[in-house]
Amino acid sequence: MVWPCPLPVDAYVVAGREVEFPRPACPACWAPMVLWAGYWRHVRAGGRCRKIFVPRLRCGCCRVSHALLPAFVLAWRLDVAETVGAVIAQVAGGRCGVRPAAARAGVPYTTARGWVRRFCARAGEFGTAFAALAVDLGGEPVRPAADLRRFALAAIGAAFGAAAGLPGWLAVGCWRFASSVSGGRLIAANTGSPYLIVGTRRFMPPVPP
Ligand SMILES: [Zn+2]
Fold first, then answer.
1. Do the Cβ atoms of 33 and 25 come closer than 8 Å?
2. How far is the CA of 75 from the centre of ligand 1 (A)?
3. How far apart are CA 204 and CA 64, in angstroms?
4. CA 201 / ligand 1 centre spacing (Å)
C-alpha cells in the first residue's frame, strides 16, 4: 500500500519510526489494521542513498500484513518518484533524449532507459486510467492523442490538477500522486491497472495539514 506522504525525503529519513503513519483500513475487508513491525530499505534522492523505515500494517481478520510505503517510493525501485517522474516527463514529453535526462537526474543511462521503456509500454493504459481519474475527480477530460506517451503525461497532469483542488494533494506533488494512485507501480513490470485501485477506492486521501 502507498500513502500520500507529503514529507520531504530528508524529514522522513530523520523521523525514522516516529513518522506519523496513517492507519488505513484493510483493503480486503475494511477492518481497522494495527502497526506490525516493519523494515528498513534504501532510497536514492538527489544522488544520495538514504535508509528509510517502512512500517507494516496487519489486519487481524485476514491475518495478512501490508507494507505501507510513502508515496515518494516506487515498489522495487531505489530512486524516488520525483527522480523517475522527471526523467519520464522529459523523455516521453519529447523534450530530450534519455542520455541528457539521465545525466540531469544523476542516474545511469541504462536505469533511466529502463524507466522510460516501462512507462512507454503501458502509456496507453496509463493515459486511459488517469484520464478517467481526472474526470472522476471533477477535472477536464483529456482526449487520447496519437502519441500515447504524451497522452499519458497529459492525463497524469490533468488528474493531478483535479486532485490538487482537494485537501492535501497539492503538497504531495504530481509524481507522488501518480505513485499513490498506482500503488507505487508506475513503472512496475506486471500489475493491475491504476484505475482499478482508484475504482475500488484503495487509494488514501492525504491528511490535510
Ligand atoms: Zn482484512
1. yes
2. 22
3. 19
4. 15
